[in-house]
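User: Hey, my collaborator sent me this sequence without any context and asked if I could get a structure. I don't really work with proteins. Can you help?
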Amino acid sequence: MLRDKTGISLMFVMPIILVMVVTSIQNSTFQLMNKSKLPVLVCNQDTGQASLQLLAAINRVGLLKVSPLPKDQSIGKIDKAMKEKDAELAIVIPGDFSARVAAKAQNAANKALKSFGLQGDSTKNQVLSTAPPFTLYFSPVLQEQLRFSIRGGLRSALQLVESRETLRKLYFAINEKQLPPALEDEMINNQSDIGMVSVSKNGGREVPNTTQHNVPAWTIFAMFFIIMSLAASVVREKVSGSFIRLKTLPTNYFVGLLSKQITYLGVTLFQAVVIFSMGIYLFPHIGLPGLNLPSDLTALIITTIITGWCAVSYAICVGVFSNTQIQASGFGAVSIVILAVVGGLMVPTFAMEGYMKTVSNVSPLHWSLEAYYDLFLLGGKLRDVFANLIPLFIITLILQVLTFIGLKRQNLI
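Assistant: No problem. I've predicted the 3D structure and written it out in structure-token form, which is a compact way to encode the shape of the chain:
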């Protein structure tokens, strides 16, 4: 193992860099969403007050930073303007926007007055246009989840403008005078705040940071990535005849197989110690949130041991059924990435639907990740992670049985 310098670097250097890069990027993304605003170009072709109120409402939403475009900006040149100003979004407000808002508000006010038993101004009932009040242009590189968030914010801004206009129409119809600005602001902007409380199994209210999410996840990935070294080592022993020589020793071959597992299990535990220590001691010095270890260290150690043993078992199983080192390394690397994706390391399992959610149960990385999340994010104890450790242990035993069958079929034991 010590002579395999490439394998050692893959088992330690690569996961360490991966943890730092992914955590840094995700932390920067969270800060962007919380502290920064996305630039949006606005071509306001309307001359009424409703469009100005809409722009003010968009600024108050907090997601977007409005940059105006000329009123005579050609629709066909919107994409060019977005590229020149490095903007992912653009809004075109048509010239009849205020008229549409007023018509919709008048119709809504008339319906409300009629339901109150009062007579509305039926002469002002208008046929409402089915066209959208304004158009949002976006770059295809913008993620769908972010687009939905932006559309929700714009919808709230538009609803605020329409509600304000409807309220004015109702007040004027009932009192025959304009709605006082102070009363208008009190009725429109009097919104209740929403409290947010983190729910955990230990009763704590701490909000987990990006490090709490990423360090356990990529520690699991690092453990399973020992397949690059261990599986290739098993193939080398088969090809070079080391298996045959080991059979001539006055001992059972399972002693050699067990020693290999114990050695690489020690490697996986050392990987976990290194990455966890980096999260605790290094991250705070490079501007990242520090890692907080679970209160139940016994549960953390047991989870790490079972995860490491499963990783070792999978690597040996792949090595036994591979005929060349290229097969072992190629299949091993691709399969670990697939298991990581399916298991929730890259895409959360709660976002999966249908058969993909069922397939995730096959991945040992899924059960290990759920156990770690119970400990790091939910403050769980050993009894809370048993439901995840048992499937992980069963998968490990299945891999051990498959390894035995493979060795038996190849007459290596």
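In plain terms: The chain has two domains: 5-27+211-409, 37-189. You can pass these tokens on to your collaborator as they are.
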